[in-house]
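Final report, closing paragraph on structural work. Over the funding period we assembled a curated collection of sequence-structure pairs, and we close with a single example.
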Amino acid sequence: MIEVVSVDRCIECDKCIEVCPTRVFDRGADGIPLLARQSDCQTCFMCEAYCPVDALFVAARTEPLPPDDIQRDETYLIEHGLLGSYRKALGWGGGRLGARDAIGPELP
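Its predicted structure, as stored:
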């Protein structure tokens, strides 16, 4: 289930909104996707796979994590290479783009 949208990493490209089959996200007033219908998430990982900047984390479960679960902590996810890790596991890229507003080649 989708658990984290990183405000710091998101480049407001709307890819997650576009690819989500159950329309879990709404575009926030600031451009950052909001988890508007988390309970509708099918844990398909499409949003995490298509995010070009590794700004999302989907937990491999069908129910939300408890509020105090360590996997909801963005710092923990980054330190353990979990934020956006599904994209890398698919071989779709090494991760984040270099600049917040750049759409171009990925950095190693």
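Confidence is low (pLDDT under 50) at residues 98-108. The chain has four helices and four strands. We thank the funder for supporting this effort.
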